[in-house]
């Protein structure tokens, strides 16, 4: 998710590194202006011109774009007029348009088309991005002007949104080292450039292990238990690697999870599990452990230089949690009931193993397989019976329908709008009166050079400076592409993820603020997951399932009794989901509270999880050596807890709908748009939640949502 203008570079550079972004030297000198820098043309204020992207031109293009913004920044800093909002803060908001557009192309190529020269390009430019951002935030004349506006008596006459923007600029500059002396600034810049290089290498190593480490299956007998569509996708994956007649299990979550859930061959489950969970931890050129050790030390040094006790204290200061202690307190409150739920489930799964005559103790690679068996035994629910109703295209239509019912948004396919890959589609979004709201791009399938997982991006943020600029957003997934003409069937968890990421897209599309830095998803990290998490809830409503969960062969809707089973089993296996997440979030926080000591990541992970009492049948959702949220950029570093913090808001907010007329209560939905989805970062997020809910958040709703007894 992108912010804009001065902060755009900081956020976009981090995002680009996280997605594996960078640049390579091209053949064009600075005197030639690459077409990638051109204003966007076409409908709706212009659209990205993907056909103008020349990967080899990224380096010279960025040199030109940074020089242009450098000149704009110098003009602001050296303005002879007395600093005021218009000639300083507003001028900063209007700077860097070419750079914004270029980062859109760059981020997409780094995250979804990361092949050929792109890895080398990223390694070249990552430190340059960091140095350029430091050049802006360390510009003393510029900061003095921002500080003057921030401290001016005239600030009281600004609108609340202008005051918020001024505060944000001042705060971010200070937190980025604007008040340090020259020697300290030089050291800080050195640290930031080195970190940028390490982040890029971390991303590339992880992506290499995802692309080059995989499981090959030679015999059809070893596919027992796997659904037909999965087997077909594995055959296609093998053929793509010139292994026709075999089956390949790719090293991504979207391939790993259904295999571990369904495959009867325990030996192969262990192999697939090891291949996936040991990414970045296999020794050799792609091992990330040494990088993590250095990243942690550099982050601690940076925090100390900026006047903070640890990196965690620096990162959490501007978040809703405010301090590491508050974040840890919430995680610890969830840990005990989650652990108790896991203990109960493991005991029941072990009984199933024993009853089958198994002579082994449940291991992590067995957990998903026997959890499904236990779900069927307890609730008569087999998710293999659900999957035939989970057609990706139909569920996408269900997302659109939900957005229409709640927010009066309507999506129309626009094949005339160019995309960057044949698998990608573009959609126009209109309101109920036919007015243009924005564009939504959908990139659903896994492919070589695309990072794993699912995410949302903003290609262009909403703003209303000189005129109203509509947003352009995308959702990206890694579903296994089926055979031509065949529907793509996804799991229930994948369907929830689709709705989750679409919630981020709606947050971007419904933004209605003036200043681009405050628009859309540019909120506190532990708030931004709130709009996405609440959107998951509409998937399981009868209205969506009855219309869009249609059998791929018969076209009939999912049976009511199957929906009832899903509803009854809603909190089943919540112990596993919560615990694997909490393990990652707690290790993230502990690593960044550990101070400046030299850490062996594998040893630290192992010892700290033992102290925490993580059940041995579970591992971290993201083990440290491939924890991209935390080590491929600063994004979620000391911040992975934020999903839980946001979910406390989500659970409480959902109860507001249920206290009203139910999930489709238009009055509550419009209040949600007004106070949350349209407001961006124009207010303190705690205040925004109070405006929606009428009070502060109550975390007991979170316990109810997850089916936990908080006394456990």
Secondary structure elements and their pairing?
Blueprint: H1 5-18, H2 58-77, H3 85-94, H4 97-112, H5 118-137, H6 140-151, H7 160-175, H8 182-212, E1 215-217, H9 228-240, E2 247-249, H10 253-262, H11 266-277, H12 289-305, H13 311-316, H14 324-355, H15 364-379, H16 383-386, H17 392-407, E3 409-413, E4 425-431, E5 436-445, E6 455-460, E7 463-464, E8 468-469, E9 472-479, H18 492-509, H19 525-528, H20 530-535, H21 542-548, H22 560-568, H23 574-593, H24 601-612, H25 628-631, H26 642-659, H27 666-677, H28 685-693, H29 700-706
Parallel strand pairs: 5-9
Antiparallel strand pairs: 1-2, 3-4, 4-5, 6-9, 7-8
Helix pairs in contact: 1-4, 1-5, 2-3, 2-4, 2-5, 2-6, 5-8, 6-7, 8-12, 10-11, 10-15, 14-15, 14-23, 17-18, 17-21, 23-24, 26-29, 27-28
Domain Peptidase M3A/M3B catalytic: 260-707
Pfam families: Peptidase_M3
Cofactor: Zn(2+)
């Amino acid at each position: 998710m992108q912010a804009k203008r001065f902060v755009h570079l900081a956020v976009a550079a981090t995002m680009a590194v996280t997605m594996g972004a960078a640049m390579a030297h091209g053949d064009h000198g600075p005197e030639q202006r690459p077409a990638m820098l051109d204003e966007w043309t076409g409908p709706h204020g212009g659209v990205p011109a993907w056909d103008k992207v020349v990967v080899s031109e990224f380096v010279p293009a960025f040199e030109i774009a940074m020089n242009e913004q450098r000149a704009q920044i110098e003009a602001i800093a050296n303005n002879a007029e007395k600093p005021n909002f218009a000639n300083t803060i507003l001028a900063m908001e209007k700077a860097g348009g070419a750079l914004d557009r270029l980062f859109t192309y760059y981020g997409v190529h780094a995250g979804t088309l990361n092949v050929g020269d792109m890895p080398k390009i990223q390694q070249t430019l990552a430190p340059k991005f960091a140095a350029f951002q430091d050049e802006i935030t360390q510009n003393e004349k510029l900061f003095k002007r921002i500080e003057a506006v921030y401290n001016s008596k005239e600030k009281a006459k600004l609108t609340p949104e202008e005051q918020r923007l001024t505060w944000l600029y001042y705060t971010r500059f200070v937190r980025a080292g604007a008040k340090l002396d020259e020697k300290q600034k030089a050291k800080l810049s050195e640290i930031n450039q080195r970190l940028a290089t390490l982040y890029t290498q971390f991303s590339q190593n992880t992506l290499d292990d995802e692309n080059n480490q995989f499981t090959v299956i030679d015999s059809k007998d070893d596919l027992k238990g796997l659904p037909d569509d999965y087997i077909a996708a594995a055959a296609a994956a093998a053929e793509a690697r010139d292994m026709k007649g075999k089956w390949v299990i790719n090293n991504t979550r979207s391939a790993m999870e259904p295999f571990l859930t369904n495959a009867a061959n325990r030996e192969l489950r262990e192999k697939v599990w090891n291949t996936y969970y040991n990414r970045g931890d296999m020794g050799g050129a792609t091992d990330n452990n040494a990088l993590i050790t250095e990243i942690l030390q550099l982050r601690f040094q940076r925090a100390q230089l900026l006047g903070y006790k640890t990196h965690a204290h620096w990162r959490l200061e501007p978040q809703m949690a405010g301090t590491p202690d508050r974040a840890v307190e919430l995680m610890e409150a969830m840990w005990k009931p989650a652990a108790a739920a896991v203990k109960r489930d493991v005991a029941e799964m072990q009984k199933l193993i024993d009853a089958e005559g198994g002579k082994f103790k449940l291991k992590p690679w067995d957990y998903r397989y026997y959890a499904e068996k236990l779900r069927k035994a307890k609730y008569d629910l087999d998710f293999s019976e659900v999957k035939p109703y989970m057609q990706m295209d139909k569920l996408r239509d269900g997302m659109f329908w939900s957005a229409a019912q709640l927010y009066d948004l309507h999506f129309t396919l626009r094949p005339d709008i160019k995309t960057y890959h044949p698998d990608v589609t573009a959609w126009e979004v209109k309101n109920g009166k036919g007015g243009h709201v924005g564009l939504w791009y959908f990139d659903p399938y896994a492919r070589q050079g695309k990072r794993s997982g699912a995410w949302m991006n903003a290609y262009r943020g909403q703003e209303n400076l000189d005129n109203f600029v509509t947003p352009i957003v995308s959702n990206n997934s890694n579903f296994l592409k089926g055979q031509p003409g065949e529907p793509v069937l996804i799991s229930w968890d994948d369907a929830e993820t689709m709705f989750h990421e679409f919630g981020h897209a709606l947050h971007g599309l419904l933004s209605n603020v003036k200043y681009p830095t405050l628009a859309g998803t540019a909120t506190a990290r532990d708030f931004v997951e709130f709009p996405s998490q609440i959107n998951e809830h509409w998937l399981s409503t009868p209205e969506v399932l009855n219309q869009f969960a249609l059998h791929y062969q018969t076209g009939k809707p999912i049976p009511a009794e199957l929906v009832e089973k899903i509803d009854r089993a809603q909190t089943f296996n919540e112990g596993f989901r919560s615990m694997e997440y909490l393990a990652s979030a707690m290790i993230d926080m502990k690593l960044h509270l550990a101070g400046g000591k030299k850490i062996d990541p594998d040893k630290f992970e192992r010892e700290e999880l033992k102290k925490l009492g993580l059940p041995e049948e579970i591992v971290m959702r993201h083990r440290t050596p491939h924890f991209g949220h935390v080590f491929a950029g600063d994004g979620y570093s000391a911040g992975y807890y934020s999903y839980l913090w946001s979910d406390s808001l989500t659970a409480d907010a959902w109860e507001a709908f249920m206290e009203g007329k139910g999930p489709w209560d238009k009055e509550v939905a419009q209040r949600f748009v007004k106070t949350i989805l349209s407001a961006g970062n124009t207010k303190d997020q705690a205040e925004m939640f109070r405006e929606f809910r009428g009070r502060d958040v109550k975390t007991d709703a979170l316990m109810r949502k997850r089916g936990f007894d908080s006394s456990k």
